[in-house]
Amino acid sequence: MIVGTQWGDEAKGKITDFLAEKADRVVRYNGGANAGHTVVVNGKKYKFHLVPSGVLRGKPVYIGNGVVLDPEVLTEELETLKAEGFKPDLHISDRTHVVFKFHKILDGLQEKFKGNLRAGTTKRGIGPTYSDKAARFGIRVADLLEEKVLKWKMDVLVDLAQKLISQVYEGDVLLDKQQIIDDALHFGQTIADCVCDVSAEINDALDRGETVLFEGAQGTLLDIDHGVYPYGSSSSTVAGGACTGVGVGPTKIDKVIGVTKAYTSRVGTGPVPTELTDEIGDKIRNVGDEYGTTTGRPRRCGWLDLVPVKYSVRLNGVSQLVVTKLDVLSGINPLKICIRYRVGEKTVDTIPANLGLFELCEPVYEELEGWPENVDWRKVVSKGYDALPEQAKIYLERIEELAGVPISLVSVGPERRETIVIND
Ligand code: GDP
Ligand code: IMO
Ligand code: MG
Questions:
Q1: Would the pTM count as exceeding 0.90?
Q2: What does the pLDDT look like over 363-376, one tens digit per residue?
Q3: Which runs of consecutive H residues, i.e. helices, occur in 273-336?
């Protein structure tokens, strides 16, 4: 199970693709097209929002019930993959909720209405779709295959959406109910052969002794319950949520892999204690190409903050860490790691639920010596962990020590092959 230990964009996509080589199946368990997962293979860049990153390995890929599915994005992604010669073996849960255009419209209107409470969403309709799911108004994939049920549910849902748009948020969009139903039925027909009981298929595969990789979207600090509420997303991003998002019991999970970027990045609003608004922050953003995969927004960058990482290790039961983008820190000296926060005389060593308190948290740093700018990463990758610059090894060992879990992989470039295996 792969989880993000920070605010998303930890390079879960790259790591999923890397690990998918040895997996039999790959399943997405949360989020929707708000995710942007980039995989680079032999110089070619692939961006995924919904299709699990394991697709490039030719493995069967699954969209679990915990995901919210945007028909337009999925259709486009599948067409692109097919045009590039891939034959995606995609399976979609009949219980997955569907995102409609009016969800995206409402997303924008709600953000405007929220003012300072807005999270700076991706405008992919995520919050409104999960709201409908929780309020039991939602449309599931299974409904797209039953015209009578779809019409009956849409009749209520579109009226509600129209009232919210026009009367609550004072938007000027008029929804065409019949068109929405026709489009939904058409999409249902195009995916009908992929629709299945994902929980049953994944459990059967596990019972046969197969290896299943669970690909997380977002990160722990964006989790609906444990994230920096209300500045996070609307799905359960943690390992426990992955079990409900696919329909497997926790006893079936034997590894929880926490992906951690060697520094911090955040796209969207809310406090980021280690954010750097100086030239070091700019350097990290430029070298790390920290611009959103989904929205193109510049990501806020800063020093590695171990408080969220430790928090994630606890919440997810992380058994091993994968540290990514280590190469980006080359040439920055000294490096800083935040080990706890301080508020006045008080020490804070976890993520507080109290937003006012979190906003006041000042990072307490430990300084470490950086490594030179001009590392020959190709050589390092071919020789393995021991060939890393000494200072980089000390940096990684300090992360292990503070997080309390071993590092199993280190990523030193976007390419699939730019990965160092420490232990399996
Ligand atoms: P995800 O959402 O967690 O899958 O992460 P994103 O794909 O949104 O962001 C990670 C970005 O970093 C992508 O552009 C990757 O191609 C790139 N990347 C991944 N691993 C590395 C690495 O080790 N070094 C560098 N320089 N870039 C990386
Ligand atoms: P991946 O899978 C980084 C952020 C948004 C916003 C908040 C809520 O690529 O790591 P939403 O559209 O979900 O309602 O937005 O969450 N956010 C992400 N930030 N990576 C992501 O996904 C994100 N998905 C959502 O910027 O602050
Ligand atoms: Mg991303």
A1: yes
A2: 999 999 999 999 99
A3: 279-287, 306-316
Residues 6+ apart with CB under 8 A from 375: 327, 330, 389, 392
Longest dimension (CA), the chain: 66
324 shares its domain with 362 = yes
Question: What residues are paired with 26 via a beta bridge?
Answer: 61, 213
Q: How would residue 163 be classed by pLDDT, with cut points 50, 70 and 90?
A: very high
pLDDT at 424: 62
Q: Indicate which atom in ligand 2 lies nearest the CA of residue 127.
A: 14
Nearest CA to ligand 1 atom 25: 413
Catalytic pick from 17, 37, 132, 327? 37
In the residue annotation, 193 being an active-site residue is answered as no
Whether 37 is catalytic is yes
Length of the chain: 424
Burial 334-351 (b: 16+ CB within 10 A, else e): ebbbbbbbeeeeeebeeb
How many Å apart are CA 257 and CA 244, to the nearest integer? 18
Instruction: Give yes or no: residues 262 and 382 share one domain.
Output: yes
Task: Say yes or no: 375 and 311 in one domain.
Answer: yes
Tokens in use for 308?
Answer: 């969220």
What is the H or E stretch that residue 400 is in? helix 390-403
**210 and 148 part of one domain:** no
Q: Any idea which ligand is nearest the CA of 34?
A: 2
Q: What are phi and psi of 108, to 5 degrees?
A: -65, -45
| CATH for 395 | 3.90.170.10
Domain that holds residue 144: 97-194
> What's the total number of domains in the chain?
2
Residues 70 and 130 in one domain: no
